[in-house]
Design brief:
Main location: cytoplasm
Mean pLDDT: 87
InterPro entries: GyrA (IPR005743), GyrA/parC_rep (IPR006691), Gyrase/topoIV_suA_C (IPR035516), Topo_IIA-like_dom_sf (IPR013760), Topo_IIA_A/C_ab (IPR013758), Topo_IIA_A_a_sf (IPR013757), Topo_IIA_dom_A (IPR002205), Type_II_DNA_Topoisomerases (IPR050220)
Distance between the termini: 115 Å
Shape: flat
Structural class: alpha+beta
Subcellular location: Cytoplasm
CATH class of the largest domain: Mainly Beta
Low-confidence stretches: 552-556, 836-865
Helix content: 25-40%
Keywords: ATP-binding, Cytoplasm, DNA-binding, Isomerase, Nucleotide-binding, Topoisomerase
Pfam families: DNA_gyraseA_C, DNA_topoisoIV
């Protein structure tokens, strides 16, 4: 007899498999919310059961026991206590930022009081809750069998509100936990709308819309670093603090009044703990403690001793009691059938994707129903036109079934007339002319069920009006299903309606943490003039330091060097919050903020760059590029650099995003050459190079391919012997306005930008100004509009600010007009365009402006090259 083979199961494998099954069951089916509707299964079942009971906000309250009974009897195979606890939390306004259940009776309190038994309390849904269940009957979500396969329940609710972020969630699963804070509806919906408008919206833009969590108990959040970390990574820590004030009575005694306490803090336990600290002498300075809270609000009164400082006592309370607590954010939710840690943007995007599915399925359902109804109305409309024949067929039929068959077999006429009366397109009417119309079974049944009153003239008009409305509805629904843009507009419109209907103000205040305040937060974002001298001295001044003057004025003192040999070589306008890339003659680049540059006066040179830049021997800053943080986003900006020998190079701006304090290489510079300028471009602009001998060349930016930081670049302008590039100008492809060319002896002119044709790079170019002994070599060329202001700086530090319109616009092959009067040993060293439309009060007009008002253009002869 053959022995039987015994089989066994490895207990380790079985324990591992069973525990994983149990863990996933707890995670998916009990402890974690779904990212789409923000609900755990028990909460979803409670709300669905109330919806089935018609326990809406417009209906009378029902006993909580009735709702709990339906939930555990149909959908949730667990104890009634757990279901009632979930129901109670949905009704607590101190636990939910937007309660979903309207409770009548004792539902507990912030003091930790237990709710009354379910047989005593009554509930119904809040009005907002109807938005979670809207369109549930329109095939918008999938349905699953309940635990005994006798009922169906929704796998998720087709919510119109981003409930996960509005009310947050708390849950402990196996090996993981979630703790999502509640938020303000108006802010979250605005963020959803912003993402609908721009799916690639940067994360930092969302932080400008959603300022932080908004707790039902109010209070304060200290600092923004924890908020930023939580929104970016899904995990972070917030510091919550009670909202307190210090009051003084008529006798001069101070008292601390607590108006709001941190979220999830038990008020009775808080007061007891403070009293215990006072009794044990761990907290000094408190003589009395009372709770005067009532229906109107919270008021905890803490009397401070006469010899104590209320602020010092309050700081001690923050440190030793629950008046200040930490809230650990852990944004874990079920997404795609598995638990995930989600950022703020991911939470919002999952909700928008859910709305996309819901609105698409709803539109298909409504389209199907509209098509079915139109078919019925169409049959009734045709039947009314042929009512005599219809009645004869019905009277001749022995029973309803035979009548239905006979009606379907009878060809009817007049369908084209019905379509014409309903306002259908002419082509559709023509196609129906002369063709018999055969009723379908469902139409025949509707005709048999039709009342005789439908034959009146008014009822016939109603049939035609309904047909028109159905046709319009069908066209609208088809447009939604055919166009993603139209679909997103529907979602956006519904979000706007939710915001306008239910939006409210924030309750939780966000307070800056002094330890988190960055230096930039203490500086106003305002325009500044930055000046750099030949000997490496730099300063910044407010734009308003310079008043508008007429052309030819003597100017005001704006920037002088340390001695007679020093003069301003670089001048530009930038806001205090902007970054400045500082390019040196050796090809290195440094970075700083404008507000970090030394502030100076008009008649002072500023401070030496060597004091805060690690410059080498013989190295000096020759070009500066200001930019703001948002310019780094998207990779659409470039830095274009040009050398004195005509080499040009284009490098992506983000390659300069991380620059160490010792600087990095920006461009390779050959012996005998040096960097003369660096400009910010958007990749679609044009470059114009101008030489000292008055030649200019204009070419497109994409003629210069993007290169790495260490490349030398390519030839931008060919130069004659002894000539050098002195200026680089960035222009728009269809640039209007004019090119201002300035010469060393104070002469200059404007020439229409359209006079400079686009060429290939590396050529000599064309004449831009006639260089003579009278006007001197070209110092700079820049694009200006007539209403711009222009600032001119001389080697002696003299500055004149004038409007571009006061400078004559003349042809290229001319010498120009006098713009500033200079001394014999003085020359123009810098010109800058100032975009400022507001003229200052007390406008100064120099006498020299009147004297030079009649200057005529000089040197108008000569041809082009």
């Amino acid at each position: 007899m053959a022995s039987e083979q015994k089989t066994g199961i490895n207990i380790e494998d079985e324990m591992r498999s069973s525990f994983l099954d149990y863990a996933m069951s707890v995670i998916i089916s009990r402890a974690l919310p779904d990212v789409r509707d923000g609900l755990k299964p028990v909460h979803r079942r409670v709300l669905y059961a109330m919806d089935q009971l018609r326990n809406t906000h417009a209906q009378p309250y029902k006993k909580s026991a009735r709702v709990v009974g339906d939930v555990i009897g149909k959908y949730h195979p667990h104890g009634d206590a757990s279901v009632y606890d979930a129901l109670v939390r949905l009704a607590q306004d101190f636990a939910m930022r937007y309660p979903l259940v309207d409770g009548q009776g004792n539902f507990g309190s912030i003091d930790g009081d237990a709710p009354a038994a379910m047989r005593y309390t009554e509930v119904r849904m809040k009005r907002l809750t109807s938005e979670l269940l809207a369109d549930l009957d329109k095939d918008t979500v999938d349905w699953t069998p309940n635990y005994d396969d006798k009922e169906l329940e929704p796998s998720v609710l087709p919510t119109k509100i981003p409930n996960l972020l509005l009310n947050g969630a708390v849950g402990i699963a196996v090996g993981m936990a979630t703790n999502i804070p509640p938020h303000n509806l108006r802010e979250i919906v605005d963020a959803c709308i912003a993402l609908v408008d721009d799916p690639k919206l940067p994360a930092n833009r969302l932080l400008q819309i959603v300022s932080g969590p908004d707790f039902p108990t109010g209070g304060q959040i200290i600092g923004r670093a924890g908020i930023r970390q939580a929104y970016a990574t899904g995990r972070g820590s917030l510091t919550l603090r009670a909202k307190c004030t210090i009051e003084e009575d008529e006798k001069g005694r101070e008292a601390i009044i607590v108006h709001e306490i941190p979220y999830q803090v038990n008020k009775v336990r808080l007061i007891s703990h403070i009293a215990e600290l006072v009794r044990e002498k761990k907290l000094e300075g408190i003589s009395d403690l009372q709770d005067y809270s009532d229906r109107t609000g919270m008021r905890i009164w803490i009397q401070v001793k006469r010899d104590a400082s209320a602020q010092v006592v309050l700081n001690s309370l923050y440190k030793s009691s629950d008046l200040q607590v930490s809230f650990g954010v852990n944004m874990i939710a079920i997404a795609g059938g598995r638990p995930q840690v989600l950022s703020l943007q991911e939470c919002l995007q999952h909700f928008i994707d859910h709305r996309r599915v819901v609105v698409t399925r709803r539109s298909r359902y409504e389209l199907r129903k509209a098509l079915e109804r139109r078919e019925i109305v169409e049959g009734i409309g045709v039947a009314i036109d042929a009512i005599d024949r219809i009645i004869a067929i019905i009277r001749a039929a022995p029973d309803p079934d035979a009548a239905r068959v006979a009606l379907c077999a009878e060809p009817l006429h007049g369908f084209s007339g019905f379509l014409a009366r309903c306002g259908r397109p002419e082509a559709e009417v023509e196609a129906a002319k002369g063709k018999p119309y055969h009723l379908r079974p469902n139409q025949a049944k509707a005709i048999l069920d039709m009342r005789l009153q439908r034959l009146t003239g008014l009822e016939r008009e109603k049939v035609e009006a309904e047909y028109k409305e159905l046709c319009a509805t069908i066209a609208y629904l088809e447009s939604i299903l055919a166009s993603d843009a139209m679909l997103m507009q529907v979602i956006r419109g519904e979000l706007v309606g939710i915001r306008d209907e239910y939006g409210d103000d924030r309750r939780t205040e966000i307070v800056d943490d002094e330890s988190e305040i960055e230096p930039i937060d203490l500086v106003a974002d305002e325009p500044m003039i930055v000046m750099l001298t030949n000997n490496g001295y730099i300063k910044r001044l407010p734009v308003g330091e310079y008043r508008v003057q007429g052309r030819g004025g003597t100017g005001v003192k704006g920037g002088v060097g340390r001695d007679a040999t020093d003069f301003v070589v670089e001048l530009f306008e930038a806001s205090t919050h902007a970054h400045v890339l500082m390019f040196t003659n050796t090809g290195r680049v440094f970075r700083t903020r404008v507000f970090e540059l030394p502030a100076g006066r008009r008649d002072h040179a500023g401070k030496a760059l060597v004091n805060f830049l690690d410059l080498r021997d013989g190295e000096r800053v020759l070009g500066m590029v200001p930019y703001r943080d948002e310019d780094l986003e998207g990779g659409h900006y470039y830095v274009v650099m040009c050398s004195q020998q005509g080499y040009i190079k284009r490098t992506a701006l983000d390659e300069f995003a991380n620059i160490r304090s010792t600087g990095i290489i920006a461009v390779t510079i050959e012996d005998g050459d040096q960097l003369i300028d660096a400009r910010l471009t958007n990749g679609k602009q044009q470059i114009m190079l101008t030489s000292a001998q008055g030649m200019a060349i204009r070419f497109t930016e994409d003629d210069v391919r993007p290169m790495g930081r260490t490349a030398r670049g390519v030839r931008g302008q060919d130069l004659r012997e002894g000539d050098a590039v002195v200026s680089m100008t960035v222009l728009e492809p269809e640039s209007e306005g004019s090119i201002l060319t300035m010469c060393a002896k104070g002469y200059g002119k404007r020439t229409a930008a359209s006079d400079y044709k686009v060429q290939n790079r590396a050529g000599l170019g064309i004449i831009t100004i006639k260089v003579t002994e009278r006007n001197g070599p070209v110092v700079a060329a820049l694009r200006v509009d007539a209403d711009d202001h222009v600032m001119v700086v001389t080697s002696r530090g003299k500055v004149i600010r004038t409007t571009a319109a006061s400078i004559s616009e003349i042809g290229r092959n001319t010498q120009g007009v006098r713009i500033i009067r200079i001394g014999e040993d003085e020359r123009v060293v810098a010109v800058e365009r100032i975009v400022d439309r507001e003229e200052e009060a007390g406008e100064e007009v120099g006498e020299a402006a009147e004297a030079s008002a009649g200057d005529e253009p000089a040197g108008d002869e000569g041809g082009e090259e």
